[in-house]
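Hey all, sorry for the wall of text incoming. These are the two entities for the joint prediction.
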Amino acid sequence: MLKYLFKRILATIPVLFIVSIVIFSIVYIIPGDPAAVILGENASQEDIQALRTRMGLDEPPIPRYFNWLDNILHGDLGASTANGTPVATMIANQIKPTLNLATFAMLLALIIALPLGMWAAYKKGTWIDQAVTVISLLGISLPSFLLGLFLIMIGAVKLRWFPVSGYVPFSEGIGAHFNALFMPAFALGFIHAALIMRITRATLLEVLNTDYIRMAKSKGVHNFVLVAKHAFKNTLVPVITIIGQSFIIALSGSTVIEAVFGIPGVGSLIVNSVSRRDYQVIQSVVLLTALLNITVNLIVDLLYGVIDPRIRLDR
Amino acid sequence: MKHLLKALSLTFLVSAFLLTGCSKADDTSATAPSTTSTSTSTTQAAATPKVEYKDELHVAVSQEAPSLDLHKNSSAIAREIGRGTIWEQLITLDANSEVVPELAESYDVSDDGLTYTFHLRKGIKFHNGQEMLADDVVASMNRWIVGFSTAKKQVGTARFVKVDDYTVSITLETPSLLFPSLIAGATQPAAIMPASVCADEDSKGFVKEYIGTGPYKFVEWKLNDYIKLERNDDYTPYGDPNKPLDGWSGYKHAYTKTIYLHYVLESTTRVAGLQTGQYDIEFQVDDQAYATIANIPNLKLLKYKSAEVALVFNKKEGLAADVNVRKAIRSLVNAEDMMVAHSGTEMYALSSSYMNEGQAFWVSNVGDKYYNLNDPKLAKEYFDKAGYDYKTPFRILAATINNFDRIALVLQQELESMGVPTTLTLVDWPTLTQFRSDPTKYDVFITSFGNVPIPTLKLYLGATWPGWSADQTLQDDMLAIGTSKTMEEAKAAWDKAQLYCWEDYVPVVALGTQYTGYGLSDKVEGAQLFNGLFYWNTRVKK
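and here's what came out:
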């Protein structure tokens, strides 16, 4: 296992290196001048040029890239080109809301998806199965921002149960924290609930048709125990895979939901940074997102071995 | 448990809704609009002992300022947050856009019109407790001159100097009647801050601390979240406490203790927050939100004429370098269609004037004859006169913010309907700011220009600003405005310059004036609307 872990960690190095080149190239190629954005409409070309020089934007791309890479390797993510704040501080401040949002969204997705998916498989062909299929189709086809706006209208404007927008840190109260996070998490998690629901149903149906389940049934094992204990365990490998992928998508795709609900997360950070051409922040956030993706994938792979002893990761 | 129940109930409600596909109209939509449409100040509510007010004011804004260093940044949101609130100026503008003293007790001009002397108010404290003295004013004003290219151009090498601890002066190279207006109404405000703050810049040349003399102190900027301001209890107000504010001047009560400016990107969310009372004021209401707010009974709207929308021609190279092509476009455009596309039906006014009612003295209708002609036949005559081949595409450049892209689409349709092929480049704002500086990239770009107190600050009439109005006659006319001896003479020179622009040179096609709107809870009192919304005397009823 340790050997496998070491190999995988080693394999992330070239991936991150390639990602760093790609993101640096994209940022370098896209038009837009951060100096002009910072100085605004009245700035003369001389003032803009002077600021460009001060910001090091006139340097050729290759030395700039290696300079950035060198700093990253020494743990220095640089400072925002827009306001001078260290990028590490900006990310540290804004990753918490995103992580909390994505985690809560996944929890909600699992709470909705697993029981419904199992129920639909067990009641295959009945109205329950059809209702679950409709919910899952809606989840896949409904844009999350539309669902978010709808939730605001119902949960905040009509019922006044939840705040319209904003993020309440955990330190300011658990109730207030989850109250503020519920609607965005639901909007973000619903699509993932739909996906997990479909996979759970399909996989469980396959398992329910296997010989060992038929044998257990003939032995008089209770239906609930049959599905929840014996069958469900064998659906976990594909379900865990989709959960891992969903979590990655929720993390990197929270931008829209963060914008709708005014959450100061990494999504908002990247949107603002792109609109300001804040190169240092864009590069670091994308690199960090890649690292998070790799980590989540690694955790999912390790879980395979735990769930299914037949899978030997170190071979 | 309460929150869990709420969450479960909402989950159930949403699921039920999604399953049944039901939809219910907002039941507030049947009520009458409570719109207050004005470009003047709202009245301050008389204090009644029975009414209780909140300690906090929550404002939802749609964008974050790149920086709050007003000397070096011209973003409207930074001005609305900082001007008169955190920082004050030597002189400011009243509701008629006339110059009045603020941190100066008074100012005088030498007989030759070259030397301006400002006598400072005594006992004014900065937020750090330090008294404002001439050294601070000199450092601030000279930093402002260097940071604000228009001021730098106007004063040349002249700089402010200290006369004594409470007097400063500047001697210009040539007389400039409009110099006080430039200081009072600059789009990069001449904020007064401590000399030590001016000297302590970061590597990009921005101040590290936000310290002024205004009624509110800067406390915290949580990026992508909010800016927090707190009342400056050592503030020394000026003016009559019993009179309402007059433009940007007058007695600032600073009724509310804490002000939060929340950054909320999505317009629908801002309106919903206003509706639920999470926010008290919404900045920069767009046309759709304006219509929504007008139908909600406990909300009110304010709007003012904030900017001029214009097609700016590239006069350096390409098709529009030919004046007849510019005249063809001037004759072709339907300004009303374009303004409706841009601002909706409620948020624009048609006008040929380059300056709007916000600067009433400078309003000029000399261009009416050439405005909003919508005459394709005349346009064709000009295209023919230019020898245009009807094959070379006319290149339109616009940003996808503030609905400029919609104007671009209308222009494209108008041109193509008369056989002029076009290419449309729609980009985000940072890309536009880069592309418009490159004369090889476009024939016309579309943008808006915020209010300025004097015509010489009109960016598109500058010889070096994108579009390049480097025409000698125009530049001479603009110079004549600045060097006029009297205001009447200056106005006549401005009329002449504007007529020349509409009739002969056509550097731009002015389409009309756009409004900026604000949504307010009806519990909000004393919001001051003058070239932006200011909350020095704002309070919110409990």
